[in-house]
């Protein structure tokens, strides 16, 4: 994307920590470096109307970068526009100078709907996964599986006087949750997400265990919610080794040696928690932003794609790599 020459206001903002924001600038520089923008332009370009007759839209790369900015900071369409007006670091990331015209919230919304309508979130996920595979970061034959709640508003104070019909309630421990559930399968060695499945919150984790397994995997690891997964009809116990962590109540009855084995299993299984940390804590998507499963699934799939690039970047930069 061709970026305009900086103005005096740009140069002043770049040297001002109050306007630039050192932490945000560093994060966005990393995001700019690890995302394959040219591959995204080639993928989304055929669906975008850039260069056709009529009023010319904003450049494709500008809109892609705005969408990624919106995802990593969990911004609504109006808030994304306000952030671009207020933050020089964000304007610099998407390629806008201080005096450039910024897309309004309707333009941002239409581009988001374009991605959702053409199911481009899955294609982006596959594109990133292909790049990570080519870099040798999806190489193990083991998968770690887990599921996590994404909360939804349970209030009925809306026009329909109803809660979202596609969301459900489920109990974990002594707490009730209303919303959806994100199930993921990650590579055992690197922790990179290779499969994403979403369901209402009342779907049990164990029912999705084999859907999260790759065809060539010979090992599946889960927490205590996956006990008995090897007994399900979809399981393949002759070829695949299924391992589920014991419940904490059961650990009291184990020998010291078995407890040590459980701790080693937890240290292996924690890679899936790192992926959830990226999506729910770093990117802030603990609660759904839209009604229905489809739009939230599209957003979660895109977030998983971005999380993968950060996880892959961290894995490559580690000085000591331990393969378990």
Automatic annotation (TrEMBL):
Its domain of life reads: Bacteria
Instruction: Name the keywords, alphabetized.
Output: DNA recombination, DNA-binding, Transposition
Task: State whether keyword Acyltransferase applies.
Answer: no
The question of whether Methyltransferase is a record keyword is answered with: no
Which residues are in the Transposase IS4-like domain? 141-309
Any one GO molecular function term = DNA binding
**Domain Transposase InsH N-terminal: start-end pairs:** 25-113
GO BP terms: DNA transposition
Tell me the function of this protein: Involved in the transposition of the insertion sequence IS5.
The family annotation for this protein states: Belongs to the transposase 11 family.
Q: What is this protein called?
A: Transposase, IS4 family
Question: Which taxonomic lineage is given here?
Answer: Bacteria, Pseudomonadati, Pseudomonadota, Betaproteobacteria, Burkholderiales
């Amino acid at each position: 994307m061709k970026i305009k020459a900086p103005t005096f206001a740009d140069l002043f903002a770049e040297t001002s920590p109050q306007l630039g924001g050192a932490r945000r600038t560093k994060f966005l520089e990393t995001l700019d470096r690890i995302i394959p923008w040219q591959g995204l332009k080639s993928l989304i370009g055929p669906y975008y109307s850039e260069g056709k007759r009529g009023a010319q839209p904003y450049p494709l790369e500008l809109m892609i970068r705005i969408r990624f900015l919106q995802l990593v900071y969990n911004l609504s369409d109006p808030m994304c526009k306000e952030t671009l007006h207020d933050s020089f670091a964000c304007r610099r990331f998407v390629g806008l100078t201080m005096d450039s015209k910024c897309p309004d919230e309707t333009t941002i919304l239409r581009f988001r709907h374009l991605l959702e309508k053409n199911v481009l979130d899955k294609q982006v996920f596959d594109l990133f996964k292909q790049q990570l595979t080519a870099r040798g970061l999806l190489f193990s034959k083991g998968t770690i599986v887990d599921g996590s709640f994404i909360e939804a508003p349970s209030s009925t104070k809306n026009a329909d006087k109803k809660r979202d019909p596609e969301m459900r309630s489920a109990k974990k421990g002594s707490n009730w949750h209303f919303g959806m559930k994100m199930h993921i399968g990650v590579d055992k060695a690197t922790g990179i997400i290779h499969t994403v499945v979403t369901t209402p919150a009342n779907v049990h984790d164990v029912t999705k265990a084999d859907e999260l397994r790759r065809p060539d995997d010979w090992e599946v690891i889960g927490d205590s919610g996956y006990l008995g997964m090897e007994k399900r009809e979809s399981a393949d116990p002759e070829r695949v080794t299924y391992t589920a962590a014991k419940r904490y109540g059961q650990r009291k009855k184990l020998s010291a040696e078995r407890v040590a084995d459980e701790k080693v299993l937890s240290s292996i299984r924690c890679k899936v928690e790192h992926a959830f940390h990226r999506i729910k804590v770093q990117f802030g998507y603990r609660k759904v932003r839209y009604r229905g499963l489809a739009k939230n699934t599209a957003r979660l799939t895109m977030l998983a794609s971005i999380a993968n690039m950060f996880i892959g970047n961290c894995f490559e930069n580690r000085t000591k790599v331990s393969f378990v």
